[in-house]
Amino acid sequence: MKVEQAMHRGVTWCAPDTPLTEVAKLLRDHDVGAIPVGKNDRLIGMVTDRDIVCRAIAEGQDLKNLCARDVMTEDIEYCYADENMEQAIEHMELMQIRRMPVIDGARRMIGMLSMGDISHSMNDESCHRYAAAVSAHH
Protein backbone atom coordinates (compact mmCIF):
# COMPACT_ATOMS: atom_id res chain seq x y z
CA MET A 1 0.00 0.00 0.00
CA LYS A 2 1.19 3.52 -0.80
CA VAL A 3 1.09 6.40 1.67
CA GLU A 4 -1.36 8.33 -0.52
CA GLN A 5 -3.91 5.54 -0.03
CA ALA A 6 -3.82 5.86 3.77
CA MET A 7 -3.12 9.54 4.45
CA HIS A 8 -5.73 12.19 4.92
CA ARG A 9 -5.67 14.86 2.25
CA GLY A 10 -5.95 18.56 2.66
CA VAL A 11 -4.07 20.15 5.49
CA THR A 12 -4.68 23.50 7.15
CA TRP A 13 -1.55 25.63 7.27
CA CYS A 14 -0.60 28.76 9.14
CA ALA A 15 2.08 31.39 8.60
CA PRO A 16 4.99 31.77 11.04
CA ASP A 17 3.56 35.06 12.29
CA THR A 18 0.10 33.63 13.05
CA PRO A 19 -0.79 34.51 16.66
CA LEU A 20 -0.58 31.49 18.92
CA THR A 21 -4.17 31.95 20.05
CA GLU A 22 -5.23 31.59 16.38
CA VAL A 23 -3.10 28.45 16.02
CA ALA A 24 -4.85 26.99 19.08
CA LYS A 25 -8.23 27.79 17.50
CA LEU A 26 -7.16 26.02 14.29
CA LEU A 27 -6.20 22.94 16.29
CA ARG A 28 -9.57 23.00 18.04
CA ASP A 29 -11.71 23.83 15.02
CA HIS A 30 -10.09 21.20 12.77
CA ASP A 31 -9.89 18.64 15.59
CA VAL A 32 -6.19 17.98 14.94
CA GLY A 33 -3.08 17.84 17.08
CA ALA A 34 -0.69 19.58 14.70
CA ILE A 35 -0.70 22.52 12.31
CA PRO A 36 2.04 22.82 9.68
CA VAL A 37 3.76 26.20 9.41
CA GLY A 38 4.52 27.41 5.91
CA LYS A 39 6.41 30.27 4.37
CA ASN A 40 6.69 30.97 0.63
CA ASP A 41 4.74 27.76 -0.09
CA ARG A 42 7.25 25.63 1.84
CA LEU A 43 6.93 23.68 5.07
CA ILE A 44 9.19 25.30 7.65
CA GLY A 45 7.82 23.87 10.89
CA MET A 46 4.96 22.35 12.80
CA VAL A 47 3.05 23.47 15.89
CA THR A 48 1.50 20.77 18.03
CA ASP A 49 -0.78 21.08 21.01
CA ARG A 50 2.17 19.79 23.07
CA ASP A 51 4.43 22.57 21.70
CA ILE A 52 1.96 25.17 22.95
CA VAL A 53 1.79 23.60 26.39
CA CYS A 54 5.51 22.88 26.86
CA ARG A 55 7.06 25.88 25.11
CA ALA A 56 4.57 28.56 26.04
CA ILE A 57 2.17 27.79 28.89
CA ALA A 58 4.61 25.79 31.05
CA GLU A 59 7.22 28.53 30.61
CA GLY A 60 4.79 31.19 31.81
CA GLN A 61 4.79 32.99 28.48
CA ASP A 62 2.08 35.51 27.63
CA LEU A 63 0.16 33.75 24.85
CA LYS A 64 -1.10 37.07 23.48
CA ASN A 65 2.46 38.01 22.52
CA LEU A 66 3.48 34.72 20.88
CA CYS A 67 3.13 33.47 17.34
CA ALA A 68 3.58 30.11 15.62
CA ARG A 69 7.30 30.68 14.98
CA ASP A 70 7.91 31.07 18.74
CA VAL A 71 6.88 27.52 19.61
CA MET A 72 7.09 25.55 16.35
CA THR A 73 9.34 22.58 15.79
CA GLU A 74 11.67 23.04 12.84
CA ASP A 75 13.37 20.47 10.59
CA ILE A 76 10.20 18.45 10.11
CA GLU A 77 10.36 14.83 8.98
CA TYR A 78 8.18 14.00 5.98
CA CYS A 79 7.44 11.22 3.53
CA TYR A 80 6.38 10.99 -0.11
CA ALA A 81 2.88 10.13 -1.27
CA ASP A 82 4.18 7.33 -3.50
CA GLU A 83 6.26 5.80 -0.72
CA ASN A 84 5.41 2.34 0.59
CA MET A 85 3.46 2.47 3.86
CA GLU A 86 5.86 0.08 5.60
CA GLN A 87 8.76 2.43 4.81
CA ALA A 88 6.82 5.42 6.13
CA ILE A 89 5.87 3.57 9.29
CA GLU A 90 9.48 2.50 9.90
CA HIS A 91 10.55 6.14 9.49
CA MET A 92 7.89 7.27 11.97
CA GLU A 93 8.92 4.52 14.40
CA LEU A 94 12.58 5.48 14.19
CA MET A 95 11.85 9.17 14.74
CA GLN A 96 9.08 8.42 17.31
CA ILE A 97 6.56 10.70 15.61
CA ARG A 98 2.79 10.42 15.47
CA ARG A 99 2.07 12.72 12.54
CA MET A 100 4.08 13.11 9.37
CA PRO A 101 3.51 15.51 6.49
CA VAL A 102 3.17 13.90 3.06
CA ILE A 103 4.59 15.62 0.00
CA ASP A 104 4.25 14.92 -3.71
CA GLY A 105 6.91 14.76 -6.40
CA ALA A 106 6.85 18.56 -6.73
CA ARG A 107 7.70 18.77 -3.00
CA ARG A 108 4.30 20.26 -2.16
CA MET A 109 2.53 19.15 0.98
CA ILE A 110 -0.62 17.28 0.04
CA GLY A 111 -1.63 15.55 3.25
CA MET A 112 -0.75 14.15 6.64
CA LEU A 113 -0.12 10.58 7.78
CA SER A 114 -1.22 10.05 11.37
CA MET A 115 -1.42 7.28 13.91
CA GLY A 116 -5.14 7.02 13.16
CA ASP A 117 -4.48 6.62 9.44
CA ILE A 118 -2.06 3.79 10.18
CA SER A 119 -4.50 2.03 12.49
CA HIS A 120 -7.24 2.18 9.85
CA SER A 121 -5.14 0.98 6.94
CA MET A 122 -2.52 -1.47 8.17
CA ASN A 123 -2.55 -4.95 9.65
CA ASP A 124 -2.52 -5.52 13.41
CA GLU A 125 1.17 -6.45 13.51
CA SER A 126 2.27 -3.20 11.85
CA CYS A 127 -0.06 -1.17 14.05
CA HIS A 128 1.16 -2.78 17.28
CA ARG A 129 4.82 -2.38 16.32
CA TYR A 130 4.29 1.27 15.42
CA ALA A 131 2.27 2.09 18.54
CA ALA A 132 4.91 0.50 20.76
CA ALA A 133 7.71 2.43 19.05
CA VAL A 134 6.11 5.88 19.24
CA SER A 135 4.83 5.34 22.77
CA ALA A 136 8.25 4.42 24.17
CA HIS A 137 9.99 6.96 26.36
CA HIS A 138 12.27 9.30 24.42
UniProtKB/TrEMBL annotation:
Please name the CDD domains in this protein's record: CBS_pair_HRP1_like (cd04622)
Which SUPFAM superfamilies does the record cross-reference, listed alphabetically? Answer: CBS-domain pair
Q: Which residues form the CBS domain?
A: 7-63, 72-130
Q: What is this protein called?
A: CBS domain-containing protein
Q: Quick check: keyword Transport in the entry?
A: no
The alphabetical list of record keywords is:
CBS domain
